[in-house]
Every structure is written in structure tokens, then in C-alpha cells.
Amino acid sequence: MDMKNSSVISEFILLGLTSSWRLAICFFILFLLAYAAIMGGNILIVITVSFDAHLHSTPMYFLLGNLSFLDMCISTITTPKMVTDFLRENKAISLWGCMAQMFFLHFLGGSEMTLLIVMAVDRYVAICRPLHYTAIMNRRVLLGSVLLSWAVGFVHTMSQMVFMATLPFCGPNVVDNIFCDLPLVIKLACTETYVLELLVIADSGLLSFICFVLLLVSYTVILVTVRRQSSGGLSKALSTLSAHITVVTLFFGPCIFIYAWPFRSFSVDKFLSVFYSVITPLL
Questions:
Q1: Per-residue model confidence as pLDDT tens for the chain (283 residues)
Q2: Residue 253 sits in which domain range?
Q3: Does some domain include residue 2?
Q4: Is residue 248 part of a domain?
Q5: What value, to the nearest 5°, has the Cα angle with vertex 170 and ends 165 and 171?
Q6: How many domains is the chain built from?
Q7: 32: domain CATH number?
Q8: Is residue 4 part of a domain?
Q9: Cα(215)–Cα(113) distance, rounded to whole angstroms?
């Protein structure tokens, strides 16, 4: 495959969240504080888990530390650029900067999807198979699961970006979002992209939907199992799973909405993008 990109344009223009200067200043302060909280909170989690021997050897906290690291990376790909753009007249990003943003966003997003499934399995074993928990969720399984999540993320992004990198772009170059995203950038290509559009729907939209359904089913199985065993244990299980369910819903909900029918533009798309790039890492 010839990987040389034959584009005429060299940059894309991001429209961002608003064209109002007053709102831009408000958003700048709000998202700057949010990003500081994301980095501070998640770095604290990673350091605490890494240097506390008890937490580092506990599967739930080991996976939580990896999730926090992914959240920091996902937010760093999009939020600093979005924050600085609030103060700029020209919100431009280079062609290959846009490609890099999409590559790492889907790489880390696919890894986080897989890791959330691993965390659901961990909760299932801890609640439904407590006597076998340490034997099943041993160190080898945990390390293998984390490596698998990174491998899935890499395959997920490469299966799309290997085609994106060869698309020609000759104008227009305006992206109506806070960062470069596959559906919006594909629409700007000056060539037929029907097959690639179907690939994005199958790879990102269908994958997000299937993972979300599997996670909801796993949580339902856990709650039903606990309720059968002990009525008092149900409230404890709910308190344990409530944070997981909240994060999963806020992460997968916008992804499904954006990628399940990605080539129909909705005015709320850019605001939904904020959920999985800022709100979920903040939580």
C-alpha cells in the first residue's frame, strides 16, 4: 500500500464549542480546572497504587490504576488543545496532528473499553466467586489482561487509521468539533469513502454497543446472583458497582451515539465528545 498522503490542504480548522468570546472565557476557566483535577486526581491514584504494596497486589486497585493512566492519556490528547483554542482566533491543527489525535484517541479508547470489561469480570469473580478470587485473578492474569487491552486498542485504531492516512483532502477543511474525530474528518475527504464509513460503523459503533451490552448483562448477572444469595449483600454490591455503572454509561453512551450512525451530524455531538474526553476521566 502506498502510504503517501496526496492532500492539498495542510491543516484543519476546529470550530470548538462556541463562537462567543464570553462563553469561550467561561469554558476556558471551567475546562482548565477540570483538566487540572483530572491530572491531579488520576496521578494521585496511579502513584498510590504503584507505591502501596497492598493496593498494588489487589486486582481491583491494580486495574483502577491502569484505568486512571488511560484516562489521563485520553484527556491529554484532547483537552489541552481544546483549552488553548478557547483563547485563539484561528483554531487550526495540522493534517498529521489531526491524524495523530485520531490514532491515539481510538488506541486508548479501545484499550479502555477492554479494560472496563476486565474490571467487570474482576467484580463478578470477587462478588460471585469470593473463595476462588485470588486464584482466578492472579498476577499473571492481571498482567495478561492489561497487555490484551493495549493490544486490542492498537488493532482497533490501526484497522481504521491505515486507510485514513491515505485519504486525499483538498477542501473544505472545517471540523465542527473540539478535536479531530474519524466520522467528521472522513466526510472532508475528496474521494469515495462509503466502504470506510461502513468500517467505522462496524469497528467503532458496533464494538461500543456490543461492549456496553455485555457490561450491562454482567452487572445484571452479578446483582441477580447476590440477591439470590443474600438480601443484605445486594446493597453492598450496588455500592460497589454504582461507580462502575456510572462510568461505563457516560463512556459508552456518547460513543454509541456518535459512532453508531456517525455520518449524520447532530448538534449535540461535540458536547457528547466532552463526556468521554473530560467528564469520564474527571470521575
A1: 444 555 678 889 988 888 888 888 999 999 999 999 999 999 999 999 999 888 888 898 999 999 999 999 999 999 999 999 998 888 899 999 999 999 999 999 999 989 989 988 888 888 888 888 888 999 899 999 999 999 999 999 998 888 888 888 887 888 888 888 888 888 888 888 788 888 887 778 778 888 888 888 888 888 887 777 766 666 777 776 777 788 888 888 877 777 766 556 555 667 778 887 888 888 8
A2: 11-282
A3: no
A4: yes
A5: 115
A6: 1
A7: 1.20.1070.10
A8: no
A9: 10
